[in-house]
Amino acid sequence: MPGRTPAPADLVIAAGLLPIESDADSRALRFTDRAAGLFTAALAAHEGRTAFVGRVPTALTGRAAVGDADLHPITLTDQQVADFARGHCATTLAPAYDGVRQPVFRRAWREAYTEVNQIVANRIAAAAAVGARVWLHDHHLQLVPSLLRDQRPDLRVGLQLHGPFPPLELFLRLPDRQALVAGLLGADLLAFAHHQHADNFRQAAQYLAGVRAGRDHLQLPHRRVRLAVIPAGVDADAVRALALDPAVRERAEQLRAELGRPETVFLAVGRLDHSQGIRQRLDAYARLLADRRLDPDRTVLVQAITSADRTEHHAQLRQEVERQVAQINGGYARIGRPVIHHLHRHLDQAELVAHHLAADVFLATPLSEGVNLTAKEFLAARIDDTGRLVLSEFSATAAELPQAMLVNPYDVEALADAIVAAGSAARLPAAEVGDARRAVEGQDARHRSREFLAALGDAAAP
Q: Domain check: are 142 and 51 in the same one?
């Protein structure tokens, strides 16, 4: 890297892809809106020197700092990106872990996954001070803990898995199941989004590695691996500030006007993936229109697809979803008044909060999921305690927010009933909405970051 060589860091945070961008005015690097809460909260929770390791956009690979932290970007070939990110991570591990669609197995992808994990481990080992803490994010880096333990046994390593960890019968389908368990067992702390995910890994480790298990740990011959449930939080203060911003509130009013001032606005925001239950949600909405339980002149659904992997699978799903939206609009829309507004673009944080304020009901109905940060942000924005959240039972966030209207998204009739019930109650303040909002605020990104770092310190203590 050009310029100075950063001093060793006593906290190293690594991800498969670091969500950073260059500020248009200052050209300084910053975290993108969607990631800012998670990563800036980690910086706030740690008083020492921090470094970030991971892949960054190609134009930023020569940069050495992001905010007040050092940046150690890794460089991958186009083939490595294709095999590691779009191959093994998106097309093998993600579907294997969420259990919704069939994973695809290719040896070249597994080899690239091992190569990239070794590259990341090498960079972390070079960046970390003696006795430093290492915070790894998600399923992209599951081999790194054991690789680091071989190189730098002095480091305290924790991995936070934001998505689900599958039941044993699904995990055993993976050709690299043994290597994944061995990699994860190199950590001092493994943090999951839900207690069932922790239980699933405990069973996999017992079955494949023969380790003894306690209530909150796995016992190895000379040390323990702590298991914890630490779902990620959101920057609730930042969301609240935007929700109070006159410009954002004006934009919310403008959105409702652009939608034709319907009585009820339903909102769904998420990535393009079968696990998100998009098809089932559209089926339920279409059924309500067909049964005249929703009036197409008085209600509208805004569905925003904010990200998608560049894979053949996701391209096919996009075509299917757009065809389904077109069929529903073709049957129930009037000229200039579609019943579904389907967006396929990024929403910055201010625009997203404006959508949260404009909506009456937020639909977070995945078929399988770890943490749903957008659902938490919806609640954080509802400072008047109006609105309703319809939340899938199969989201890890359901365990944190029992006040939401919980639903089985596989049951389209039950999903339709929940949509109608939420719409009819959404404009009245409710105690459960306030309770859910306060739960989000009390377990925000800063709280969860402190919790993770404290757990990592406790796990590594002799």
A: yes
Residue 105 to residue 101: CA distance in whole angstroms? 13
Clarify whether residues 227 and 256 are in a common domain. Answer: no
Give CA 213 to chain center in angstroms.
28
Q: How far apart are CA 75 and CA 11, in angstroms?
A: 21
Domain containing residue 20: CATH number: 3.40.50.2000
- Overall domain count for the chain: 2
One domain, residues 151 and 37: yes
Residue with tokens 């699933």: 200
Comparing CA positions, the residue from 381, 336, 351 lying closest to residue 250 is 351
Q: What is the pLDDT of residues 102-155, one digit of tens each?
A: 999 999 999 999 999 999 999 999 999 999 999 999 999 999 999 999 999 999
Q: Which residues of 444-454 are buried (b: 16+ CB within 10 A; e: fewer)?
A: bbbbbbebbbe
Angular region, 387: left φ>0, alpha ψ -120 to 50, beta rest = left
pTM: 0.93
Q: What DSSP string runs through 140-194?
A: GGTTHHHHHHHH-TTSEEEEE--S----HHHHTT-TTHHHHHHHHTT-SEEEESS
Ramachandran region of residue 428, left (φ > 0), alpha (ψ -120 to 50) or beta?
beta
197-215 per-position pLDDT tens digit: 999 999 999 999 999 999 8
Looking only at the bridges linking them, the beta strands covering 212-213 and 50-55 are unpaired
Same domain, 131 and 245: no
Domain identity same for 221 and 251: no
What does the DSSP 8-state code read for residue 266?
E
- The two counts, helices (H) then strands (E), for the chain are 18, 18
- For 276-314, what is each residue's pLDDT tens digit? 999 999 999 999 999 999 999 999 999 999 876 666 778
Question: How far is Cα 199 from Cα 419, in angstroms, rounded to an integer?
Answer: 32
For residue 388, give its domain range.
Answer: 236-443
Name the H helices within 246-311: 246-258, 278-290
Residue type, 446: R
| 3 state SS of 218 | strand
Render 342-405 in DSSP notation, one character per residue.
EE-S---HHHHHHHHHH-SEEEE--SSBS--HHHHHHHHH-TTS-SEEEEETTBTHHHH-TTSE
